Amino acid sequence: MALTRDFKKTVAARVRRDPKFAKALLDEAATLFLNGEPDAARLILRDLVNATVGFETLAARTSKPSKSLHRMLSSRGNPSMDNLAAIFDAVRENLKVGIKVRTVEAA
């Protein structure tokens, strides 16, 4: 029998032990949002929240109910820009990183 491990648990474990991986996920989530792929971005951000700050702490930091935050970051979620900014800010602070936007000319 093959050994398998839950994907979310694997991602969470890697985020906790590898700060560069965590930062790369945050960067990927931001990039996906800016490039018009909010569904994938929300799911990555949800996994990152679970692995770092946690939804209860995020709720305290954003003054939003934990259940609402879970819904916002679900596959059908529709968070406002203010809520997204607050979520990104909490994760960014937890990872102790800044977010800088660079533009690249389209081909």
Notes on the structure:
With 107 residues, the protein is mainly α. The protein has one domain (7-94). It is 66% helix and 0% strand. It is built from 6 helices and no strands. The radius of gyration is 14 Å and the shape is globular.
What tags apply to this protein structure?
107 residues; mainly alpha; 6 helices; 66% helix; globular
Task: Sum this structure up briefly.
The chain is built from six helices and no strands.
What topology emerges from the helices and strands here?
Elements: H1 7-17, H2 19-34, H3 38-51, H4 55-62, H5 66-72, H6 81-95
Helix pairs in contact: 1-2, 1-3, 2-3, 2-6, 4-5
Query: How many domains comprise the coordinates?
Result: 1
Question: Mean pLDDT, rounded to whole units?
Answer: 89
Low-confidence stretches: none
Q: Give the overall shape, derived from the CA principal axes.
A: globular
Provide a count of the helices.
6
Rg result: 14 Å
